[in-house]
């Protein structure tokens, strides 16, 4: 599995559900990365406000911010190389860079799409 790191702008939370509105892109990213982690894949996230040293110690990320400003965030680094900047990767790219095969992704989606006994989607026995 590759080492995947995301250098994100300063924000109060990584889920996109803080503040007055929901950031759908952050919600997508947080949800998918949580699913990947459930499959044993880990993608490291660094927030500029809570992990500033991570931005300082990565020379390439530091240079990008110095030259392009924080508008270049988020920056995705895979095995030490910048793969994407100024936007989050697609779920397919996240999965590929996390070392998942097409079959792994299909199994993950099928597992997450299974309805519960009552069909409401909760983890409780019976209906909610």
Automatic annotation (TrEMBL):
InterPro entries: Arsenical-R_ArsD. It comes from the Bacteria. Pfam families: ArsD (PF06953). This is Arsenite efflux transporter metallochaperone ArsD. The gene is arsD.
């Amino acid at each position: 599995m590759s080492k995947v790191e995301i250098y994100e702008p300063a924000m109060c939370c990584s889920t996109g559900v803080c503040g007055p509105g929901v950031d759908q892109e952050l919600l997508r990213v947080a949800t998918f990365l949580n699913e990947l982690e459930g499959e044993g894949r880990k993608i490291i996230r660094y927030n500029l406000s809570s992990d500033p040293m991570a931005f300082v110690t990565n020379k390439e990320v530091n240079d990008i911010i110095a030259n392009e400003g924080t508008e270049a965030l988020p920056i995705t680094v895979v095995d030490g190389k910048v793969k994407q900047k100024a936007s989050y990767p697609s779920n397919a790219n996240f999965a590929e860079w996390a070392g998942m095969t097409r079959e792994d992704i299909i199994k993950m989606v099928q597992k997450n799409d299974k309805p519960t006994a009552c069909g409401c989607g909760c983890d409780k026995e019976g209906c909610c």
